[in-house]
Design a protein that fits this description.
Blueprint: H1 10-29, H2 33-41, H3 45-73, H4 75-94, H5 99-111, H6 115-126, H7 132-161, H8 165-184, H9 191-199, H10 207-212, H11 214-245, H12 251-281, H13 286-306, H14 310-336, H15 344-372, H16 376-387, H17 389-405, H18 409-412
Helix pairs in contact: 1-6, 1-7, 1-8, 3-4, 3-5, 3-15, 4-5, 4-6, 4-8, 6-15, 7-12, 7-14, 11-12, 11-14, 11-15, 11-16, 11-17, 12-14, 13-14, 13-16, 13-17
Length: 414
């Protein structure tokens, strides 16, 4: 597809708006969920982190199926179903009367949490390959802008109106995305394309073929290690803030402080997508951008481990945000180049599942690591980001070979 003025494509702008509204709602509640579980349900840190584990376990199982269904049956129906699941899950948390309901809601949100996967597949459908990283970067910019607004609003709502209120507002935001999708988005896959994807010999996820696809394995290795490290951070972030950065503060002050700190993540991601990533794409390849992103995240994790007050903690969030803004769009663009076009949605689902597996494991152990010492998860996370530079270096060599051979990426990888 040749899109001359791709940055102004109406469909891209619409999907960005949907992602923005979704992330405003999600970022309202995720930072305060551990505090909500602790204050309202008297849950301990090791049980609280299992809420994240439950979500990502469900997402790990469902991810490839969600992406594959969108390849075979269209992006819009799958997107609507996943968005409705998020609405129901947030309502369940807001009205929960027991820890069991919290866990059921997190599993539901994980199973139907393919809305971002499908949104990314939608973007890869409408963007030419040479513009894909930047377009996915704009998706991350919408993520970042959502994090500018969401955490602060969620913290303010929790501190002023009660800990359950942000979840109800988040459900409303998710419902808005359903309405936007239904009335404004058009399907990118025609009926004939969907039928071809169902019948094509290439349109299957053969595990042995995937394992023999070395570039794909390198992308998934970086995705897994990076997400494992990030899982250590997100599982213990609010608890670390309460115990170390905002020591002795009450629930309202900690909720507001956590929300404001995470605003720096949103600002950093948005600035990265609008300014840093476009400049980087003019000069260096996707694998080098991945390496820069991993290095920035490592530095941010190390700074956070040393933080004992809000200023240094906020500085660490900026480095983590810049790293995220560089790392994720480049990885998503690279993974779509390692398989045939008929598998774009499916392979994005596989990547999401691999990242979910990293978070499942890291959130499962993060509570014990935090109990051992609150700074341990952050130091381990920083070291893991440094380790992810090795497979990123292999991807750099692979992309250089592709440019020399001038062949299709997915053909050269098999």
């Amino acid at each position: 597809m040749n899109v001359k003025h791709w940055a102004l494509d109406r469909r891209l702008l619409t999907i960005l708006l949907i992602v923005l509204v979704q992330m405003v709602g999600t970022s309202m509640v995720n930072p305060i969920l551990p505090l909500y579980a602790q204050s309202e349900f008297d849950m301990t840190p090791d049980v609280i982190t299992l809420l994240l584990t439950a979500f990502f376990t469900a997402q790990f199982i469902a991810g490839p199926f969600i992406g594959r269904w969108s390849d075979r049956h269209g992006r819009i129906p799958v997107l609507l179903i996943s968005q409705l699941g998020t609405v129901i899950a947030f309502l369940m948390i807001g009205f929960a009367q027991s820890t069991a309901v919290l866990f059921i809601a997190r599993v539901l949100d994980g199973v139907t949490g393919g809305n971002i996967i499908v949104a990314q597949a939608y973007v890869t459908d409408i963007m030419p390959e040479n513009r894909r990283t930047q377009a996915l970067g704009y998706v991350m910019a919408a993520f970042g802008l959502g994090f500018v607004v969401g955490p602060a609003v969620g913290g303010l709502l929790a501190s002023q109106l009660g800990p359950s209120v942000p979840f109800l507002f988040a459900a409303l935001a998710a419902l808005v995305t359903v309405i936007l999708t239904w009335f404004t988005l058009e399907e990118t896959l025609s009926q004939s394309e969907q039928a071809r994807n169902r019948e094509s010999n290439q349109a299957s996820l053969n595990p042995l073929q995937l394992l023999r696809n070395s570039p794909l394995m390198a992308v998934l290795a970086v995705s897994f290690v990076g997400r494992f490290a990030f899982g250590l951070l997100i599982a213990t972030f609010a608890l670390f803030a309460e115990k170390v950065i905002f020591a002795s503060a009450d629930f309202a002050a900690v909720s507001l402080g956590v929300g404001l700190m995470l605003m720096f993540v949103g600002v950093g991601q948005f600035f990265t997508q609008i300014v840093i990533l476009p400049a980087a794409l003019k000069r260096i390849s996707d694998p080098l951008i991945v390496m820069l992103g991993a290095g920035s995240r490592a530095l941010g994790m190390f700074i956070f481990a040393l933080a004992t007050e809000p200023t240094l903690g906020s500085l660490s969030m900026i480095f983590i945000a810049v790293g995220s803004g560089l790392l994720l769009p480049a990885l998503q663009s690279l993974v779509t180049k390692t398989v045939p076009p008929a598998l774009r949605g499916a392979i994005l689902g596989v990547q999401q599942s691999v990242m979910s597996l990293g978070v499942i494991i890291s959130t499962g152990v993060s509570g014990a690591l935090f109990t051992l010492d609150p700074v341990v998860p952050n130091w381990i996370g920083g070291l893991l980001y440094l380790l992810s530079l090795a497979p990123a270096l292999y991807l750099w060599q692979w992309v250089r070979g592709l440019r020399a051979n001038k062949g299709k990426a997915w053909l050269a990888s098999t």
